[in-house]
Amino acid sequence: MLVLGFTAIDFTWILLSLFFLLAFCLHVFLSHTSAKCAQSRVCELFQDLIRYGKTKNSQRPSYVRMCDVPKRWFSHFYVVSVVWNGLLITVSLQTALLGRDLPLWLSNTLGFLTDSSAAAWKGVPLCTVVAQVLLWAHSVRRLVECTRVSVFSRGVIHTVQYAFGLGYYILLGLTLLCVRGPQQHQGPPVLWALVGASCSSSGPLCSSTAASCCWHTCGEVQTLEHGLPRGGWFERVSCPHYFAELLIYLSVGVVLGGGALTWWLVVLYVLFNQALAAQLCHEFYHSTFQHYPRQRRAFLPFLF
C-alpha cells in the first residue's frame, strides 16, 4: 500500500538514510561532549557499531570484542554482489533481448517492494541493464581490489555491519529493477555509463595509493601500520574512494533517466553513509599524523 506516494522500497531507503544521518549528527555531538559522557557504555556501543577497521579504538572493552569479525571479510560482500547481481543481469538480458517474462519469484518480489501487481513487471528497459552492468563491474573491481591490492591489518568489523553488508547488495540489485516502470524516461545510458566507469576506475588508483604505504618496493608487505597517502585525489580529500563511490551512484541515476525517485533515495543513503565513514577516517588521520595537510577535506572536495 502506497503511503504519501512512497512504496515499501522507498521507505526502506528513507529509513536507512535517516539512520546514517542521525548517526553522523550524534557522532559529531558526542565528539564535543565531556569525556565522561563519551566513555559511557551506551556511547561505547554506539561508537563500536559505526566504526570499523582502523577507526576502531584498539583499547576497546572485552564485551564489545565478542562481536568482531576480520575486516578482510569485506570481500564476502562483493562475492555476494557479483553472484547475485550477475544472476539478475542474466534474467534482465533474457527479458530485454529475448522478450521472456521475469521469473515468477522475481516479479512477485518486485510487486511486493513497489506495492504493485506481479503482472506489471513484464520487461526490463535497456538503460536498466546498462546500470546493472555498471554496478556489477564495480563489484568485480572491488572484489579484485580486496583480494589483490588491499593490505588488511588486524582491523575488524562488527557482526551487525557484516550482516548488513551481505544484505545490502541483494537489496541494491532488487532496487535497481524496482526503479524501472512505465514513467521511466530513457536517458543517454552510454555516455553516463562511461562517466560511471571513469569514476569506478579511479577507485583502484585510490586503493593502490593507500596500499602503497604498506608495500615495499620489492613487492612484499613492509608494514601493517597505516601510512599517510599522498597524490591524486588524496590531495583534496581524505577518502577519495568514498567520493568516487558517490559519483558512481550519481551516474547510475542519470543512466536511469534522472527521474527515478527510488534511485535518488539510494544516492541519499550513500551520501550519508559515506559521509559518516569519511568523517571517522578524517579524524583518524588527524589524530595519527601530526602534520596532516590542512587543505584536505573529509569527503567532498572544497566542501566537507
Automatic annotation (TrEMBL):
<dbReference type="Pfam" id="PF02544">
    <property type="entry name" value="Steroid_dh"/>
</dbReference>
<feature type="transmembrane region" description="Helical">
    <location>
        <begin position="159"/>
        <end position="182"/>
    </location>
</feature>
<dbReference type="GO" id="GO:0006488">
    <property type="term" value="P:dolichol-linked oligosaccharide biosynthetic process"/>
</dbReference>
<feature type="transmembrane region" description="Helical">
    <location>
        <begin position="246"/>
        <end position="272"/>
    </location>
</feature>
<protein>
    <recommendedName>
        <fullName>Polyprenal reductase</fullName>
        <ecNumber>1.3.1.22</ecNumber>
        <ecNumber>1.3.1.94</ecNumber>
    </recommendedName>
</protein>
<keyword id="KW-0472">Membrane</keyword>
<keyword id="KW-0812">Transmembrane</keyword>
<keyword id="KW-0560">Oxidoreductase</keyword>
<comment type="similarity">
    <text>Belongs to the steroid 5-alpha reductase family. Polyprenal reductase subfamily.</text>
</comment>
<keyword id="KW-1133">Transmembrane helix</keyword>
<keyword id="KW-0256">Endoplasmic reticulum</keyword>
<comment type="function">
    <text>Plays a key role in early steps of protein N-linked glycosylation by being involved in the conversion of polyprenol into dolichol. Acts as a polyprenal reductase that mediates the reduction of polyprenal into dolichal in a NADP-dependent mechanism. Dolichols are required for the synthesis of dolichol-linked monosaccharides and the oligosaccharide precursor used for N-glycosylation. Also able to convert testosterone (T) into 5-alpha-dihydrotestosterone (DHT).</text>
</comment>
<keyword id="KW-0521">NADP</keyword>
<dbReference type="GO" id="GO:0016095">
    <property type="term" value="P:polyprenol catabolic process"/>
</dbReference>
<dbReference type="GO" id="GO:0160198">
    <property type="term" value="F:polyprenal reductase activity"/>
</dbReference>
<dbReference type="GO" id="GO:0005789">
    <property type="term" value="C:endoplasmic reticulum membrane"/>
</dbReference>
<feature type="transmembrane region" description="Helical">
    <location>
        <begin position="75"/>
        <end position="99"/>
    </location>
</feature>
<feature type="domain" description="3-oxo-5-alpha-steroid 4-dehydrogenase C-terminal">
    <location>
        <begin position="226"/>
        <end position="304"/>
    </location>
</feature>
<comment type="pathway">
    <text>Protein modification; protein glycosylation.</text>
</comment>
<feature type="transmembrane region" description="Helical">
    <location>
        <begin position="119"/>
        <end position="138"/>
    </location>
</feature>
<dbReference type="InterPro" id="IPR001104">
    <property type="entry name" value="3-oxo-5_a-steroid_4-DH_C"/>
</dbReference>
<dbReference type="GO" id="GO:0047751">
    <property type="term" value="F:3-oxo-5-alpha-steroid 4-dehydrogenase (NADP+) activity"/>
</dbReference>
<feature type="transmembrane region" description="Helical">
    <location>
        <begin position="12"/>
        <end position="30"/>
    </location>
</feature>
<dbReference type="InterPro" id="IPR039698">
    <property type="entry name" value="Dfg10/SRD5A3"/>
</dbReference>
<dbReference type="GO" id="GO:0102389">
    <property type="term" value="F:polyprenol reductase activity"/>
</dbReference>
